[in-house]
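In the current project phase, we have settled on a layout for protein records. One protein thus recorded is set out beneath this paragraph:
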Amino acid sequence: MKTLVTGGTGFVGAAVVRKLVAAGRKVRALVRPGSDLRNLSGLTVEVARGDLLDPVSLELAVKGCDALFHVAADYRLYVPNPDAMYRTNVEGTRVLLSAALAAGVRRIVYTSSVATLGHTPDGSPADEESPSGLDDMIGPYKRSKYLAEEVVRELVRKEGLPAVIVNPSTPVGPGDVKPTPTGRMIADAVMGRIPAYVDTGLNIVHVDDVAEGHILAFERGRTGERYILGGTDMALREILEAIAALSGGHPPRLRLPHGLVLSAAYLMEGWARAFGGAEPRATVDSVRMSKRRMFYSSGKAMRELGYAPRPAQEALRDAVAWFRGNGCGG
């Protein structure tokens, strides 16, 4: 039997594909027409053309598969048309998982995000039980991932969906071809394009450890449960200092107040909307999120799954090396 991976050409999805292929699994990757296939180069993978907005393609993709890793998502922190993101992340998830149920898929891992989790009152690392609601979600991406996770939970409760949920924190490492918002920050830092920073923090994890966490969740996770797949909590200043040391550059020394950066983000987004530009370097949602340090505990995954992420320094080293080897700051 085969394993279907959605988002198999993406950053996390391709890392999951590599792990599955290395383990001897027959893998089918759901790939949108026109997708960049570099992350699948050299891998023995069946490619299924389709889209989360195309129900027929999803029915064909899950046919003959006994396992599903639903990794695909629209991950952007600036979207001119939020409705498209909701259709992909929420309704696309509902249609895909319903098709998987009908096809008799026996085990599913759904890739959510720590974006769906709450924060602790004292600022300590949040975990899977940290309370959150839709009103706590900042921006279309976080809201759509929260609603998609609710879809998964509903299908588990009402339809017996055999799914486990994983919540990656901030993956970095090789293969970030798009790149992700975090990958773009690393690339910019390598090239000396970040002159200042704000007081915030992220949980940094190697993308290959996130992929390994997916496999562990598939093998050992409890149906209906969610597991944070994180690594090391780091202040943004520490991250930029580590990147500078790895790339031979100089870290920014100027710390900007959130209010000033937020004002700049509004101006950048206004310009992008007026003139159809690319995603701004600073988005309103990303600045609003940065007011809290996004720190998380992977204790549950470590206890129940045997998850063991490597130090963040190694993840950042591999990310810097990959970006420099792919035309960034070489």
